């Protein structure tokens, strides 16, 4: 099995003049050019490769890491726009094609767009689309209320900010629940606030039970939530570093973390501050 757009285990069968011949389960072979790897292999080596298609449509392989895989959504940069469509940089030698028919809005060189990767049924080639809503479902939900989830910031709405939940569902962060700048394509952690009768999902960036402490403390708390629960600023940190990172003075910072500490929301160590884990975080 060598499905395009996925990582697969394979065995190096032969080292040829221009690359490697790889053999997969079932006996299928795929050629991997030397310029699609920065490693040296010998016949018999077991390796993992990413399968994609060359300009002729034939399956080929690379050991380089793409920024998107099959049936996933990622933020990609437009490398070139031609009369046929847009070509996206996705970290490997062949650019990802998005035809005009698969563009929600006309794409511009140098801009970044959220893209879904799929296999086109007619051409059987890997193709990108910015019409992401087609691939998000409300019929069968895979999340529950208060669950911690992965979010991708999507487009703005009159009510707040639309987000993509766990690569599968659309959700909404209401304006009243937004306490920081949210940029298109950013990845954040969040929590399912409410699932409505029509399966619409409300999302919050803060865990349940969190009560506002103050604007500066809230800001630090949000940074901890999005930074794996750690911030490398402490009592001995340079005041200029604190101001550059947080836009607040060292005195204000110490007062804010003091508030969080007294609420048992953080612990303070010599190397920085750590979020105290709770059952909802």
Put the structure in a nutshell.
The chain is mainly beta and about 280 residues long.
How would you characterize the overall build of this protein?
This protein is mainly beta and 281 residues long. It folds into 4 domains: 7-62, Beta Barrel (OB fold (Dihydrolipoamide Acetyltransferase, E2P)); 73-133, Nucleic acid-binding proteins (OB fold (Dihydrolipoamide Acetyltransferase, E2P), Beta Barrel), CATH 2.40.50; 148-204, Nucleic acid-binding proteins (OB fold (Dihydrolipoamide Acetyltransferase, E2P)); 215-275, Arc Repressor Mutant, subunit A (Orthogonal Bundle), CATH 1.10.10.10. The protein is built from 3 helices and 18 strands. It has helices at residues 215-226, 239-246, 250-262; strands at 7-15, 19-23, 29-33, 46-53, 59-62, 73-81, 85-89, 96-99, 112-119, 126-129, 148-156, 160-165, 169-174, 187-195, 201-204, 230-231, 266-269, 272-275. Strand 4 and strand 5 (59-62) form a beta hairpin. Helix 1 crosses helix 3 (250-262). It is globular, with a radius of gyration of 23 Å.
